[in-house]
């Protein structure tokens, strides 16, 4: 009976201290587990984190722009232009469609539009369109005119164009993307 | 005589239940206080590291803007966090007297990036030298 009471008291004491530690953690959700989480965090900080934290939310699509796929007929005008590639929300550009083979008047397939890179941000290149895109973004953030931001955005496009599309995506969204 | 012997034996047998309970309670309180203090110390250490990294980011950002290298990414494309990630990756000066020089602030993980970015503001005072500025008084 005494042993049972001692064990019960230990559980009650540890439970109350867990609740106390959880309350004192300032409402941070990851620390609300109390004493066990606190000990776990301490051990993690000492020995490093080897556990799998699970996947981070991935804000990027993984579409691939697909190229046009025309099939030219040999005998009539029914050649179908290749459907343009759907714009991938992430990834590499779609390959352009090849022209129809043998059709006398078949129109060649139109080239597929390339994927737009990670998320909604197209790969930044050292050209005017990228500079204008960046200028529009900055103008929207600051309320200034787009034209005013062109000189800066041109230089920013030059800086960012040193990175590959994947590296740019990592910069914009972190390596979890 | 017999009763006094029994009492003496009982007193030598060990701790009473009350003593055990008090001891366990005291240990529990001490553990609680220790864990709480450890947590606070850990939080303070993280904040100090974040401030230090933010200062480095601000310093490198000032150097780059002084060299005319645009690197501050608009808020809608990630803002200070994205700019910090760009600086972590590093920027090589393409031309000018510092051509080939490499500016970077390595060693900041993606998980730590938000806490670093809290201490950084984008200075829009001069359109031609946009840069990140360290803000020590920011509340994380």
Your description of this structure?
The complex is a heterodimer of chains A (177) and B (140). Chain A is mainly α and 177 residues long. Chain A is 42% helix and 0% strand. Chain A has helices at 2-24, 35-47, 128-142, 146-160, 165-173. In chain A, helix 3 (128-142) crosses helix 4 (146-160). The relative contact order of chain A is 0.11. Chain B contains four helices and four strands; from the N terminus they run αααββαββ. In chain B, the strands form two sheets. In chain B, strands 1-2 form a two-stranded antiparallel ribbon. A two-stranded antiparallel sheet of chain B has the order 3-4. The termini of chain B are far apart. At the A-B interface, helix 1, helix 2, helix 3, helix 4 and helix 5 of A face helix 2, helix 3 and strand 1 of B.
Q: How would you state the average pLDDT of chain B, rounded?
A: 85
Distance from N terminus to C terminus of chain B (CA atoms, Å) equals 73 Å
Share of residues in strands of chain A: under 5%
* Percent range of helical residues of chain A: 40-55%
Number of strand segments of chain B? 4
Give the spatial strand order of the biggest sheet of chain B.
1-2
Percent range for helical residues of chain B? 55-70%
Calculate Rg of chain A over CA atoms.
Answer: 29 Å
Major interchain interface with per-chain residue totals: A-B, 48 and 40 residues
The largest sheet of chain B, given as strand count, sense and whether it forms a barrel, is: 2 strands, antiparallel
Structural class of chain A: mainly alpha
Q: What is the count of β-strands of chain A?
A: 0
Q: Describe the sheet with the most strands of chain A.
A: none
Sum up the overall morphology of chain B in one term: rod-shaped
Distance between the termini of chain A: 58 Å
Mean pLDDT of chain A: 57
- Uncertain residue segments of chain B: none
Multimerization state:
heterodimer
Topology of chain A as a string of helices (H) and strands (E)? HHHHH
* Number of helical regions of chain B: 4
């Amino acid at each position: 009976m005494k042993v049972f009471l001692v064990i019960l008291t230990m559980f009650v004491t540890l439970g109350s201290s867990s609740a106390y530690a959880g309350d004192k953690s300032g409402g941070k959700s990851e620390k609300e587990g109390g004493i066990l989480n606190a000990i776990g965090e301490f051990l993690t900080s000492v020995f490093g984190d080897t556990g799998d934290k699970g996947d981070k939310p991935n804000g990027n699509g993984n579409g691939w722009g697909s190229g046009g796929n025309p099939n030219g007929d040999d005998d009539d005008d029914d050649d179908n232009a290749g459907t343009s590639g759907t714009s991938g929300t992430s990834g590499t550009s779609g390959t352009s469609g090849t022209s129809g083979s043998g059709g006398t008047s078949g129109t060649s397939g139109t080239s597929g539009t390339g994927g737009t890179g990670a998320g909604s941000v197209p790969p930044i290149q050292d050209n005017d369109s990228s500079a204008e895109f960046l200028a529009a973004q900055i103008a929207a953030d600051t309320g200034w005119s787009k034209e005013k931001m062109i000189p800066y955005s041109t230089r920013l496009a030059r800086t960012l164009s040193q990175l590959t599309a994947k590296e740019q995506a990592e910069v914009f969204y972190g390596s979890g993307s | 005589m017999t009763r006094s012997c029994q009492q003496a034996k009982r007193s030598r047998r060990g701790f009473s239940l009350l003593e055990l309970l008090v001891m366990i309670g005291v240990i529990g309180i001490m553990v609680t206080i220790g864990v709480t203090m450890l947590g606070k110390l850990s939080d303070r250490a993280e904040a100090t590291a974040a401030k230090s990294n933010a200062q480095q980011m601000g310093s490198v950002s000032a150097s780059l803007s002084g060299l005319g290298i645009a690197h501050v990414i608009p808020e809608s494309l990630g803002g200070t966090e994205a700019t910090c990630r760009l600086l972590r990756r590093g920027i090589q000066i393409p031309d000018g007297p510092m051509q080939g020089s490499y500016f970077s602030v390595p060693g900041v993980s993606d998980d730590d990036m938000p806490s670093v970015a809290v201490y950084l503001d984008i200075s829009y005072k001069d359109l031609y030298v946009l840069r990140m500025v360290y803000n020590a008084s920011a509340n994380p």
